[in-house]
Design a protein that fits this description.
The chain is mostly helical and 149 residues long. The chain has a single domain, classed as Helix Hairpins (Orthogonal Bundle). Helix content is 89%, strand content 0%. It has 2 helices and no strands. It has helices at 10-53, 60-148. The longest helix has 89 residues, at 60-148.
Amino acid sequence: MATRYEFRLAGVLRLRRAEYDQAAIALERSNALLRSLIAERDAATARCRALGSAPTGHTREDFLAGRQATEHAAAGQLAAAARVNVAAAEAALARITWAGAHRNVAALERLDERRREEWSLESARLERLELDELATVAFVREHAEGSVA
C-alpha cells in the first residue's frame, strides 16, 4: 500500500486556523483595552467622589472653582464610562468572532479526523485483501507443485 493520507480540505483548514489565530489576537487586544478603560473609569470615579466630598472654600470664587472642578470630574467619569461601554461591545463582538472561528476550525478538524479514520480502515482492509491474495497464490502454487511431483 503506497498511498498516503491527504486531507482534501487541508488548505481550507490552514486558512481557518489562521483566521482563528487572528480572532484570538483581536479578542486578547480588545479584552486588554477593556481592562485598561475600566481602570481609567474607576480612577475617574474615585476622583469625582473625592472632589464631591472635599470641603469647598468659604468664598464665592472658591465655591465656584470647586463646583467647576467637580463638574469637570463628573464629565470625565461619564466619558470614561462611555468608553468602557463601547469597548465592552467591541470585546463582545470580538468574542463572537473568535467563537465562530473556533467552531469552523473544530468542524474541519472533526471532518479530517473522520476522513483519516475512514482512510485507515480502508487501508487496513486493502492490506488484508492483499495478504489474503498472496496467501492464496502461495497455497495454489504449493499445491500445484505438489501434484506435479
